[in-house]
Amino acid sequence: MRRILVIGSAGQLGSEIVPELRTRYGKENVVTSDIKIPTHENAINSTPFVQLDILNKEALSKCISDFNIDTIFNMASILSASGEKSPLKAWDVNLNGLINVLEVSKENNIDSIIWPSSIAAFGPTTPQTNTPNETILSPTTMYGITKVTGELLAKYYYKNYSLDTRSMRLPGIISSKTYPEGGTTDYAVEIFYGAIREKEYTSFLDENTILPMMYVDDCIKCMIDLLEADPKKLRRRVYNVTSMSFSVGELAAEIKKHIPDFKIKFKPDFRQEIANSWPKTIDDSFAREDWGWNPHYDLEMMTKDMIEKLSKRL
User: Is 250 exposed, middle or buried (0-12, 13-18, 19+ CB in 10 A)?
Assistant: First the structure.
């Protein structure tokens, strides 16, 4: 039975994956940690919980030792839009934090590390259609720079220290449980809140902007499936993964099928330039071949489920 530490457990992905991990491995075998004490509904029952700053290497090492941790999910991250407002903070948390995780994992003989990368690792010179797994990585955001560097670090520690690092380049994640936290794909969550509460939404991306997306249920499945994948079948440390791609206008049209009087306006801001530098569609054939990645949700299914769940909450 694994002993898992989830770093950044109070964030969007962390708070979503903890319940599933505890269902699979037992509540006492999944330790949650975050720099802030969790308060939102998804993290109320977070025990065992350790308040932990990923930049504090000694505290991180002590936590691993105290709880006999053998598996780490590193979810601590400053996202793309927030990273452009605070680039040095993004560098510090995303990279120095990752190095701390890799170093203490090496020192404590950790079995596996799951660390999400992102489509932000790509850039304007990357092929934007059917983007391959091995391609040009030349991002224009600090978030993207930290993801490319993080991928290289993960590969380095695997090659030189046999540390089992596993990473997936996540697209935009859509979730009904937690409000978005500073990402460029946040519109795809905010739009549902606007549609349900006010029957209107003003998008910070233009109508025709197409980006790869994934429903959070598929995202959780993706991370756990990669963790449990046979190491002999993994041909690389970093995998493209995706589920669906759609434009802002296409998502709005799908929402209108459920909320006919929904209206949308478009007022692009600085995030439009970031979105323009990212791929429209992703080739994730390596993930499908190596460890059987197979998402369940499409645009229609995701929209229906989001509206049903958010309507009950709001």
Answer: middle
C-alpha separations of 68 from 19, 52, 111, 268 in Å: 20, 16, 11, 48
Contact 203, 188 (CB under 8 A): no
Q: Is residue 21 part of a domain?
A: yes
Q: Domain of 153: which CATH number?
A: 3.40.50.720
| Residue 114, SS3 per DSSP | strand
143 is a catalytic site residue: yes
In a domain, residue 14? The reply is yes
Do 27 and 146 belong together in one domain?
yes
Q: Which residue ranges in the chain fall short of pLDDT 70? A: 38-46
CA distance 38 to 48: 12
- Given a contact cutoff of 8 angstroms between Cβ atoms, the answer to whether 274 and 82 are in contact is no
Task: Report the domain count for the chain.
Answer: 2
pLDDT digits (tens, 9 = 90+) for 78-119: 999 999 999 999 999 999 999 999 999 999 999 999 999 999
Do 99 and 179 fall within a single domain?
no
First-last CA distance in the chain:
38
3-state class (DSSP) for residue 39: coil
Cα–Cα distance measured from residue 312 to residue 32, given in angstroms and rounded to the nearest whole number: 27
d(C-alpha 129, C-alpha 7), whole Å: 33
Nearest-angstrom CA–CA distance, 200 and 69: 46
Residues 165 and 201 in one domain: no
CATH number, position 302: 3.90.25
CA–CA separation, 56 vs 220, rounded Å?
Answer: 27
Find the angle CA(240)-CA(143)-CA(77) to the nearest 5 degrees: 85
DSSP reduced 3-state for 234: coil
| pLDDT at res. 47 | 81
Q: Model pTM? A: 0.94
Residue 288 lies in a domain: no
> Of these residues, 143, 201, 215, 297, which one is catalytic?
143
- Is residue 287 situated within a structural domain? no
